[in-house]
Specification:
With about 240 residues, this protein is α/β, with parallel strands linked by helices. It is built from 9 helices and 8 strands. A hairpin with a 2-residue loop joins strand 4 and strand 5. Helix 1 packs across helix 9, helix 4 runs parallel beside helix 8 and helix 7 packs across helix 8. The radius of gyration is 18 Å and the shape is globular.
């Protein structure tokens, strides 16, 4: 199935897109827990491919080698179970737990390039659609509403100022025990925004029917409440349409 081909089955997927560190994962996880849905952070899949390349001594700039590697990865995204380290999910790469390894500064530095490769995106989109085909999924990323599941039940585009996002990433790094410099993180976020928005394949952009939510200065509870209200309105509208039919 190509990126331009839609799944045949309509599925109830909530798509949350947005730039790096906009709060997609945190909000997506909270929403999935409230709804009893599966949570899938698609960015973790591209991060895992980047980590695999680095560990195998493959230059992340070698598109052909990285693409071939992505096709043969043994990759699983599981719900966090029994772990008390703040993780949102567990990433298993070739049999090993790499949940925190994919969040390293080294992966941060190369993931935008790796995720821009058409072959890598094609493979990851294929895997993501397989997961989404079962329905009842909150899927977060950069092209969920535009490419992966354009027929999603609800499409959201979560944003925040670059300064706010850098502060969040800096805080995350501190909590994970990594050394962190705020100005370097801010510069990297601005760089990633530029790469993600200007790449030829699946650029970062909001779907035409996505609802924009700015999380700057808002708590996760405030953002979650806003989304639940939108979801309730969408559910009410769907029921009304069914009754009218």
């Amino acid at each position: 199935m190509s990126e331009g081909t839609l799944p045949q089955k309509k599925t109830k997927v909530i798509a949350i897109d947005g730039p790096a560190a906009s709060g997609k994962s945190t909000i997506g996880l909270c929403l999935a827990e409230v709804l009893g849905y599966l949570f899938l952070d698609t960015g973790s899949m591209y991060r895992a491919a980047t980590l695999a390349a680095l560990r195998d001594g493959i230059d992340p700039a070698d598109e052909s080698a990285v693409t071939e590697l992505a096709r043969r990865l043994q990759l699983q995204i599981r719900p966090a179970a029994g772990e008390d380290d703040g993780r949102h999910y567990t990433v298993i790469l070739d049999g090993y737990d790499v949940t925190w390894d994919i969040r390293s500064p080294e992966v941060d530095a190369h993931v935008s390039a790796v995720s821009s490769y058409p072959g890598v995106r094609h493979e990851m989109v294929r895997r993501q659609r397989e997961i989404g085909s079962s329905g009842n999924v909150v899927m977060v990323g950069r092209d969920i509403g535009t490419v992966v599941v354009p027929e999603a039940f609800l499409k959201l585009y979560l944003v925040a100022s670059a300064q706010e996002r850098a502060r969040r990433r800096w805080q995350d790094r501190q909590e994970q025990g990594h050394s962190a410099d705020y100005e370097e993180i801010l510069s990297d976020i601005i760089r990633r925004d530029r790469i993600d928005s200007s790449r030829r394949y699946s650029p970062l952009r909001a779907a035409e029917d996505a609802i924009m939510i700015d999380s700057t200065g808002k708590s996760k509870e405030e953002v979650l409440s806003e989304i639940l209200q939108l979801l309730a309105e969408r559910d009410d509208s769907s029921q009304t349409q069914l009754k009218a039919a």
